Please model this.
Amino acid sequence: MKKGFLLFVLKSIAILPLGFLYLIADFIAVILQYVAGYRKKVVRNNLTTSFPDKSLKEIKKIEREFYRFLSDQIIETLKLLHISDKEMKKRVEVVNYEEINNSIEKGKSAVILMGHYGNWEWVQEIGRYFSLLAYQASIYHPLSNPVWNDIFVKLRSRWGAHILPMKKTARTLLDKRNQPWVCGFIADAFTGYKHDDNWIEFLNHKTWFIYGPEEIGAKTGADFFYLDMHIEGRGKYKIEFRKLIPQDESQPYPLCRQFWREFQKTIERQPAYWLWSHKRWK
Model:
């Protein structure tokens, strides 16, 4: 399918009011969970092993909420093709961003660590709050389909962030060590391989984690922040920044480890809004 035609179709859908699009999302949720059974075994296994103290009734409730969230995520991402800055500002509240700007004003860069939680595509709204002194970057993993890849790059660069392919991120940020930058890392990807000793106990699982963001930040003297997302209603989010301060520096990569501790608290607070459909642990 050609890019121009696909964009026309997607924009024709995105122009519809969110209220109507959420009706479509409700239908998608039923299809995903009950008709297609999209990764149902993976979702159930992830939830039951992460929350062994929860009853089957509680697990099923989280499952229903998860599939509804996943469907809303699809619709809300599509809506980025046709949503005003004014409406985005009403739907995404951003607090405590001043601390990041304080770092920028001091000439320091900022590493923002977050997870696949809530609407991570709407997180790009934060770009409007940061000092113009900083080079802003967002990382993405290029898609194999060039048409969809171009569309997602378009969506993610709406507020002016530079979209960096994952393989070029470290070199680009290290080359800009003389200029403050702000870069968000979706840090809840797992290595899946027991190739070193860098693991943490996370949601009742022994979890190996990526630590590249801490290596990049350490080399450039960056400050580290956790992006916490609160879901306050359908299509209503509150983003809060907290400076990451390690509780234990006796092990390697204490800032990444602190991210995982903070992230577990977020998931335990509202468990349905993490991406449970991925095979998290091998």
Notes: Strands lie at 92-95, 110-114, 135-140, 162-165, 181-186, 199-202, 205-208, 223-233, 236-243. The first strand starts at residue 92 and ends at 95.
